[in-house]
Amino acid sequence: MKKKLLLVLSIFVVALGGQGLFSNGLADEEEADYPTEPIVFIQPVKAVIFDHKFHVEEAGLDCESCHDDLFEQAAGTAEENDDFKMQALYEGKYCGACHDGETAFASNTKCAVCHIGVMGYNRMHKVDGEAEEKVHH
Amino acid sequence: MKIEDLERMKNEGPESLPSEERRKFLKMGLVVTGVFAGGSVLSLTSARNVYGALEGIKLKKYPYKPHYSMVIRQDRCIDCELCKEACVKTNNVPEYGYRTTILEREIPIGPDEFQREFMPVLCNHCNQPPCVRVCPTKATYKDKKTGIVMMEYKKCIGCKTCMAACPYNARYFNEEKRAIDKCNFCFDTRLSKGEKLTACAAACPADVRIFGDLSDPESRVYKLVHEPERVVWVLRPETGALPNVYYTKG
Question: Which InterPro entries does this UniProt record tie to the protein (chain B) (predicted)?
Fold first, then answer.
């Protein structure tokens, strides 16, 4: 009886500990991990690039800096909003929260740093050239 | 001279610019401030109290009324290509050609540091158009009223001499029309129907393409080109074509 209780208890402890370890591990992973592929917005215009790597490693931002107040973590959520336009950025929303000319370069300057255009989009998705040829054949 | 040859040319600097070139731009009300990009682009700023006079014609104003012109605020272009889409739709441009397009380049801004830059291009509707000069059938001509370089498709024999002569690569052979096609500032499709803007200018979400009458001091194009201290330039000024598409930043 005593043995059995101990066993149940120990399983309980191990399970708890395991869960604790697991959630700690996840938290650490979230701190360091981010999508390595750049996010490319195609609404309302094609196309704007956002690089997690640069913003985390070079700019030193945490996930919490943008998520979930400025941007939902689910990709494409912001693009569904009608106000996801330059005007909103000038009003301090979305990227404009930092890109205000003080924290980072202002949203109404250096347009082509973020805007990669249709040409940039096509390059990333290999619309032109060999890749397209392969798709056709 | 071929465009490729021009691009290979060494930048000789503004001091070696022939005085004739300088005078041409002074006559247009512009002052040359520098030469860059392999000697193929002149930097200009507006000269106050200088009136337009072109090629011996003594004028106190621009030679056409309206004198259609476009000012391209180059650093605002984001290559969304809504202008291209609007142009294709409005003017029925086939996939293999274009009336206007966007160029892209990486400009060095520091050691190992580059910045992307987009540049919209189209027919420059030159005051001295090389394409018109070489056309053997007068299928392409300068409209006497508006200064628009137009095409009369029926007269075109498809010899493509105008394509070779154009310093701006603004012409293509349209297979369906069996003739050269090019930008005409949407004259037939929009301007003649009372629209004030070309399709590309109307479609631009970033206010890059400013279109209007350069002879009207109240127009945005006039104000931009004549704004004191604003640097305005044209592409390939050395051809002497006196283009009506101006570029600026800011």
Answer: 4Fe4S_Fe-S-bd (IPR017896), 4Fe4S_Fe_S_CS (IPR017900), ET_IronSulfur_Cluster-Binding (IPR050954)
